[in-house]
Write a structure and sequence with these properties.
Chain A: Homodimer. Forms a membrane-associated complex with FtsX. The complex is a heterodimer of chains A (236) and B (295). With 236 residues, chain A is α/β, with parallel strands linked by helices. Helices cover 35% and strands 26% of the residues of chain A. Classes of the chains: A alpha/beta (236), B alpha+beta (295).
């Protein structure tokens, strides 16, 4: 049984402009997948479908065999608790400190104060931010912000962690730290779906690589590599 | 509730400027609304008091005796249109006349005690009833003449109707404007948090989780601003009553004939403002936050 399944999914924002075009893909529990491709290829639309920020124009997206588009609005919070998302622009709550940014993810599921006090420091230590617990986002570096974003996504132990270009706005050293954290999370059983066009990371980790271009899946290989658009064309 | 209160205090502490400016805007709006309602009430009170001065006077023939006039007075008192009747005897009329003309001895000398007629001064509950009453009384037994300043009263009736209508329209307009200012202020506070609300939804917050703190804050802001303006208005009104500037009784908004003790009026005004504050805060924030709950 696939954990995530895209069945002939097409997303047309305007007539004639397909962000995704007849995409069919299955992701199993515990996999680490890179979604690669140039900007505007459809990676973000793919992720938005998964958390139902967007719905397909045709086809269906299933999570644990349940069609996401058919979920009533009242069930969306449950879905979003099972799928943690890390964004390129972090999407942190600037008026809350590091501790509170993570605690929010637990508060929304009505966790007790005691649980929050235990879980938040643990998650923060996992991403190396326990010492900056009372700092505010504006006092953090880009890499630290992204690690905080990961900590928040992990707080309610999601089944899947989706990272949309998580290294797009951070320096190479921080990129390595973030990827290392994602690998560690994956080794604990969480499915990781990471959209990226950073060739170094993709090629170093040797995971399943799904290449999207102009809304279509061009290749899907385990232990695959990513060479960018020109090299991919040259190599067929 | 404890959590909501805690969140509210933390938010206020972190966004002092926004919170204070919103509270000031809302307090001033409620204060101006209260002042306007006071002005409308006082102008209505003044109008009513002028209306009460309008009367008709029935002069009687000399042969119509005092007992007969008093009997007629008793009969007229049963008429529901009539608010007040005063009997002015020949002696009373002479006394009033001499009092008014005390500086004119020549005039006083030419008037004897018995020359002035006895009369009944009649005030009606509604100004418009005066005219009808005059035609009923004219030509009645013992009636010499019925005096009634028709032109003045007619003009006053049309003016007072205009003041009622303009006052009512302005009051409604002002209430709508004040309510809009309060709702827009609350909406601005919530809009400034728009991206945060989006993030909360993305991490799996339920509608209730996103909505509750904002509605709580909006309602509390409405209550606090209405409360502060109520206290200021009450102090002003109390000062007005104790210094004799304000009357002890005032008209009850636009309800004809209804009068309230000024103290009771102030209590009603405070309750109206507090209720408006709480309702506006609640409804305004609930409507504003709805926009961010659409998935």
């Amino acid at each position: 049984m696939s954990q995530i399944e895209f069945r002939n999914v097409t997303k047309e924002y305007e007539p004639g402009f397909k962000a995704l075009d007849d995409v069919t893909l299955s992701i199993d529990d515990g996999e680490f997948i890179f979604l690669v491709g140039p900007s505007g290829a459809g990676k973000s639309t793919f992720i938005k479908m998964l958390i139902r920020e967007e719905t397909p124009s045709e086809g269906e997206v299933l999570f644990n065999e349940v069609p996401i588009a058919e979920l009533p609005s009242s069930k969306l919070p449950d879905l979003r608790r099972k799928i943690g998302v890390v964004f390129q622009d972090f999407k942190l709550l600037n008026s809350k400190n590091v501790f509170e940014n993570v605690a929010v993810a637990l508060e929304v599921v009505d966790s007790s104060e005691e649980v929050i006090k235990n879980v938040v420091p643990n998650v923060l230590s996992m991403v190396g931010l326990v010492e900056k617990m009372f700092n505010f986002p504006k006092q953090l570096s880009g890499g630290e912000k992204q690690r905080l974003s990961i900590a928040r996504a992990l707080a309610h132990e999601p089944d899947v962690l989706v990272a949309d270009e998580p290294t797009g706005m951070i320096d190479p050293k921080s990129t390595e730290e973030v990827v290392e954290i994602l690998e560690r999370i994956n080794s604990l059983g969480t499915t990781i779906l990471m959209a990226s066009h950073d060739q170094n990371i993709v090629n170093k980790l040797k995971k399943r690589v799904v290449r999207i271009e102009e809304g279509k899946i061009m290749s899907d290989k385990k232990g695959g590599r990513y060479y960018g658009q020109i090299m991919a064309k040259l190599l067929g | 509730m404890g959590k909501l209160w805690q969140n509210f205090l933390v938010n206020i502490k972190r966004e002092k400027l926004l919170a204070v400016s919103n509270l000031v805007i809302m307090t001033v709006t409620f204060l101006v609304l209260g002042m306007f309602l006071n002005i409308v009430t006082l102008s209505q009170t003044a109008l009513r008091s002028l209306e009460e001065q309008a009367q008709l006077t029935v002069f009687f023939k000399d042969e119509f005796l005092e007992d007969q006039i008093l009997n007629m007075k008793l009969e007229l008192e049963k008429d529901e249109r009539i608010m007040e009747i005063k009997y002015v005897s020949k002696e009373d009329a002479y006394r009033i006349f001499t009092e008014i003309n005390k500086d004119q001895p020549v005039l006083l000398e030419s008037i004897s005690k018995n020359i002035l007629p006895a009369s009944l001064e009649i005030k009606t509950k509604e100004l418009s009833d005066l005219s009808g009453l005059v035609s009923e009384l004219e030509g009645g037994e013992g009636v010499e003449e019925v005096k009634f300043y028709k032109d003045v009263i007619d003009r006053f009736i049309s003016w007072s109707s205009a003041v009622y209508v303009i006052g009512l329209v302005l009051a409604i307009l002002f209430v709508v404007v004040s309510y809009s200012v309060v709702v827009v202020t609350i909406r601005l506070t919530i809009s400034s948090k728009g991206s945060e609300l989006e993030v909360l939804k993305l991490v799996g917050a339920s509608d209730k989780y996103v909505k509750a703190p904002l509605v709580f804050q909006g309602t509390l802001f409405g209550f606090i601003s209405a409360f502060v303006s109520s206290v200021l208005l009450s102090l002003l009104s109390w000062g007005g009553v104790s210094s004799g500037i304000l009357p002890s009784k005032v008209a009850f908004f636009f309800i004809s004939g209804a009068k309230l003790e000024t103290v009771v009026y102030i209590i009603v005004l405070v309750l109206v403002l507090l209720l408006s504050g709480i309702l506006l805060g609640f409804v305004g924030s609930s409507v504003a936050v709805k926009k961010y709950l659409k998935y």
